[in-house]
Amino acid sequence: MISNIEESLSSIINVDGINGTMAIDKNKDILGALMPDLYDHDSLVDVADQIGMTYGTLKELKIRPEEITFEYEGMHLFMKDLRGKGILVVLHDSDVSNAFLNIATNIARKQIVSALNESNTSRKVSRSPKKTITSATDVKTAFQTSNVQFKATSNLAVQQEVEQTALQLNLSDEMLVFNNFMKNLYMVNSSEFPGYETDLIEFIQSSLKKSKINPIVITEFEEWFKKPDEIFIYTLMTEKEMHAIVHPLYIFLCELHGPIEGDMILNRALEQTESLPQAKTFSPRKFL
Amino acid sequence: MFKNFILFLTFLSVTIADENTEEIVDYGLTSDAITGPDLIWVMVCAALVMFMQAGFALLESGMTRTKNSVNVLMKNYTDMAFGALIFWCVGYGLMFGVNPSGYVGISGFMPSELPGGLNAHFIFQLVFASTAATIMSGSVAERAHYWTYIFCTIILTGIIYPISGSWVWSSDGWLAQMGFHDFAGSTVVHSVGAWSALAAIIILGPRLGRFGKKGEVRKIPGHNLSLVAIGGFILWFGWFGFNGGSTLSMSDDIGTVLVNTHIAAASGVAGAIIFRLLLKKPVLLVGSVNGGLGGLVAITAGCDALTVPFAIITGAIGGMIATIGGSLLEKFKLDDVVEAIPVHGFAGVWGTIAVGIFVDSVSFTTQIIGVAAIFAWAFGVCYIIYWIVNKIRPLRTDTVSEQRGLDYTEHYEQAYPEFVQGLHEEIKR
């Protein structure tokens, strides 16, 4: 399990400009961390404290963000909720591409969550950093694997690398179900409606921007609508994001065909998707 | 806080009742005005009018989609409940209290004990008020927030309906003084409910996809036409109490009123069907039921004064108006789910004017003035209030609620869980 998590974290720090990654469980204990030399023990403890305080405050306010970002001592922290299992933290320079960052963190998140699910033993690599780490050397030995490589690659190369990684991954049940559902929802005789694709993309774009979901999701959908026969969506989206995409598409179908037809298309897509074996573990009704 | 509020209500109620024991209403009634057989008749009619709520609930529920049927039923059920309470608090006093100005009653609020037969009068008027309120629920179905709707009906039942009602049914009301004739409320009850609905649907806007970008009109059929038909029958049945009870006595007039009521309803159905045949349109159940209701609404104003032939004409034209009124609204892209505005508003206007046309003793001009004044009051004030309410808390639900259905998003229960997107899996009580 530990190596899986560290592999996942390394997939993030290999992205150009990323300076470090860390996974913390819900008790704020560190599951794994990969940090360059510039981070000493105190910095890590500070980072962990900062994360704990931030999430603690949000929890008190009864806010459970999927992801948050904030600046800390000149570095940008990007944090992603591991669906109640913990928090994934990425430290990066300001010029890093958010799009690549999101893809990478999503891939890592999936791996980490899988690793956690598979493990029935203790998930902790160490206890709280305040208690177990006493020096910068401890930080390296505790949290760094020996084969970590920092690559200075171009954005294009990173994108290709990430895409390859994504394709090498077996699509999760969620994403298979989602892809299937979207295809069924999208399958209309567009020849009857001139300008169908253009109108649809514009409508989805404006709706998604209002919903403030991950920009990479919007980008991926723009591409997917151009070639819907392919499995294009590989970002590991949350259920909330999936719903945020399905709903504007439903509205568009209602506006185009009328509400009765819109409901029928939605229900048909639901029925067809539910025939998939994967739908037994992840119900497409969650998109609704 | 709540305890103090209850104490305040109790204190206010006792105080007012003590001060106005014998002169609560300015209706030409004394405490022994409704007694014996009259009392029985009015009470039975009040029960029949109350039963019309079931008719409205079935009719409106049947005309909506499965995913919104509980919401419509809930609106019908609870607007009656809240309407009754607010009518007791302020509505009855505003409508039938001592009315020195001719514009509004100023006594008889929160009566703790009404003398003798006035209880019959109170309960009969209370169920009338509920009828006015519930007309709106069908028009705004499938996209109006439940609690915002309830708030609007409280305003309607507590303030708007009683004030315009006092103009006509209080003996000192300014329209009553002019000789305006609206026997059982074509305008006072039905049109007021419809104008309130009109204001609401203008603010709400149409349902998702109801009108296409190129102006196409998409019909959204209801989920259960059996409920529509049964609802229609119950309303027809209840209307005998609605019109018959308005005599407030077991007199010979009842015969005329009930014959006219039934004949006009039949004419409304026939008129609607014949009209559609002439237009070479299919004869639909919903159109036929609405035609009958249009006939009933139209005859309500003059059922005590019209002869049977005129009742037939009034009812038939009422049915036709109810049939074509929906198309008129659609031209303006107004989405009235159950076509309550044509049925209760347009047919109500026609019925009130028809009294001025067919009855010699009633002034046509006065009827026009009354109809216009009540439209201006009900629509104008409702529009302003709903507009303000909409700014504070939107009247309309979001599109996600429209997709999921208001049964799920507003009430967490569904009438037809096996048909509705399976959202019951996610319901958290």
**If helices are DSSP runs of H or I spanning 4 or more residues, what is the number of helices of chain B?**
15
- Give a quick account of the main beta sheet of chain B: strands, pairing sense, barrel closure: none
Query: How large a portion of the residues of chain B is in β-strands, by DSSP E?
Result: under 5%
What is the CATH homologous superfamily assignment of chain B? Answer: Ammonium transporter AmtB like domains
CATH topology of chain B: Ammonium transporter fold
Give the number of domains of chain A. Answer: 2
Largest interface: A-B, 19 and 19 residues
Quaternary structure annotation: heterodimer
H/E element sequence of chain B: HHHHHHHHHHHHHHH
CATH-derived topology of the largest domain in chain A: Beta-Lactamase
What is the radius of gyration of chain B computed over CA atoms, rounded to a whole number of angstroms?
Answer: 21 Å
**What is the residue-mean pLDDT of chain B, rounded to a whole number?**
90
The helix/strand class of chain A is: alpha+beta
CATH architecture of the largest domain in chain A: 2-Layer Sandwich
CATH hierarchy: architecture of chain B:
Orthogonal Bundle
Quick one: CATH class of chain B? Mainly Alpha
The global form of chain B is globular
User: How many structural domains does the protein architecture of chain B include?
Assistant: 1
- What's the number of extended β-strand segments of chain A? 5
Mean pLDDT of chain A: 64
| CATH level-4 homologous superfamily of the largest domain in chain A | Dynein light chain 2a, cytoplasmic
Describe this structure in words.
The complex is a heterodimer of chains A (about 290) and B (about 425). With about 290 residues, chain A is an alpha+beta fold. Chain A has 2 domains: about 1-165, 2-Layer Sandwich (Beta-Lactamase), CATH 3.30.450; about 170-285, no CATH class. In chain A, about 55% of the residues lie in helices and about 10% in strands. Chain A has 11 helices and 5 strands. Chain A has helices at about 1-15, 40-60, 100-120, 130, 135-145, 155-170, 175-185, 195-210, 215-225, 240-255, 260-275, and strands spanning about 20-25, 30-35, 65-70, 75-80, 85-90. Chain A has a 5-stranded antiparallel β-sheet with strand order 2-1-5-4-3, sandwiched between helices. In chain A, a hairpin with a 4-residue loop joins strand 1 (about 20-25) and strand 2. In chain A, helix 3 (about 100-120) runs parallel beside helix 6 (about 155-170), helix 8 (about 195-210) packs across helix 10 (about 240-255) and helix 10 (about 240-255) crosses helix 11 (about 260-275). Chain A is elongated. Chain B is an all-alpha fold. Chain B has one domain (about 35-110, about 120-425): Ammonium transporter fold (Orthogonal Bundle), CATH 1.10.3430. Helix content of chain B is about 65%, strand content about 0%. Chain B is globular and about 55 Å long. Chain B starts with a helix and ends in an 18-residue tail after the last helix. Classes of the chains: A alpha+beta (about 290), B mainly alpha (about 425). Chains A and B meet through helix 10 and helix 11 of A and helix 14 of B.
